[in-house]
Amino acid sequence: MGDLTSAPIPGVRSDDHLRGQAGDPELVVMYADFSCPRCAVAAIALRDAGSSVVFRHFALKARHPRAVPLAHAAEAAALQGAFWPLHDSLFADQGHIDDPHLWARCDQLGLDVDRFEADRRSEAVATRVTRDLREGMRAGVTGTPAVLRPSVD
Amino acid sequence: MAIIAPGTAVPDFVLKREDGGDFTQDDLQGKTTVLVFYPFAFSPVCTDQLQIYEEALPELTEQGATLYAVSTDATPAQTAFREKLGVSIEQLSDFEPKGAASKLFGAYFEPAGMTNRALVIVGPDGTVAWSHLADSPGDLPGVNLIFDGLASVSAA
User: Fold this and answer.
1) Looking at the partner chain, which of B58, B87, B144 has a beta carbon nearest the beta carbon of A138?
2) pLDDT confidence of B155, banded at 50, 70, 90?
3) ipTM value
4) Segments in chain A forming alpha helices (H)
5) Would you list which residues of chain A are within 8 Å, Cβ to Cβ, of chain B?
6) How many angstroms separate the Cα of A151 from the Cα of each of A18, A36, A142, B46, B142?
7) I want to staple B38 with a disulfide (CB 3.0 to 4.6 A). Which of A72, A131, B18, B46 is the partner?
8) How far apart are CA B76 and CA B128, in angstroms?
9) pLDDT digits (tens, 9 = 90+) for B9-55
10) Which of B49, B51, B58 minimises the CB distance to A63?
11) Which CATH number, 3.30.300.30, 3.40.30.10, 3.40.50.720, 1.10.3720.10, labels domain A36-148?
């Protein structure tokens, strides 16, 4: 529990999922959900444009039954250095997002599936996904995708 | 129509709970209440709003606040909406006479004949402690605004 009063979007941090350059003046922070079709459109467009992007989770339990599990899966992949490969994989095909599909994706990406299974159910991964959501809520995010400029310290 | 101002005593009103019972000004006594007025069940912005607010319920409980959602939809539609979304926020219906309670709070949008998008925090003494009317019914107030409102109340 804690504070949900208004606060600026946090600046880029060392543990953020960053594609591109942190110092890029055009860098955007995208609050998104892997079950959200509009997020897929935005994410693919940003990737294809070569944009510098920080990805943060905005996975709502009530939005889609797989929203939170997919966010946890992406964090588990990140622990094996594969956040962006799984990000691209999930957004390229949102029709196959059940657990067996995730295991198949891990195989394709060369990940240790047993480790992935343990990590995606870990407290650390859940805490990270919740942190992103709460920070988005404090910044006034009300829907996905939210493509924003980060705060500058 | 101006939203009810802080410091105003809540007027006498009647809304319908999902179980058919009345929800009145007496149900506001002795606790902090957040009333979320929203236009229509199943409409896109209202869907986003309740799904996001659902995530904040633990923090609201921690602060001793209870949140209710109010619209002019009939109770069966509200219940179907809540169940479809998978949220637990209790729904209060202002269906008949249509919008009567919402009008008392200044949370009715006459041009469309619907509840406006508004937030009202009522303190334990039954007095409005904070209120917010969206610039447009299509604007979704972030859940952070509710917590800003609660913080301003507790700091006063």
Assistant:
1) B144
2) confident
3) 0.87
4) 37-48, 67-78, 83-92, 99-109, 113-119, 123-138
5) 1-7, 60-63, 133, 137-143
6) 15, 25, 18, 29, 18
7) B46
8) 29
9) 999 999 999 999 999 999 999 999 999 999 999 988 888 999 999 99
10) B51
11) 3.40.30.10
Determine which helix (DSSP H) or strand (DSSP E) holds B57, and give its type and residue range. Answer: helix B57-62
CATH code: domain of residue B59: 3.40.30.10
**Rounded-to-5 percentages of helix, strand, coil across chain B:** 35, 25, 40
The four Cα atoms A56, B135, B3, B51 give a dihedral, to 10 degrees, of: -30
Residue reference for tokens 């606060």: A7
- Report residue B113's pLDDT band, with 50, 70 and 90 as the boundaries: very high
Contact B87 A137 (CB under 8 A): no
**CB–CB of B119/B143 below 8 Å?**
no
Decide if B4 is inside a domain: no
| CA-closest candidate to residue A128, choices A68, A80, A48, A49 | A68
Mean pLDDT by 10 residues, chain A (153 residues): 87 96 95 97 97 98 95 98 98 97 98 98 98 96 93 65
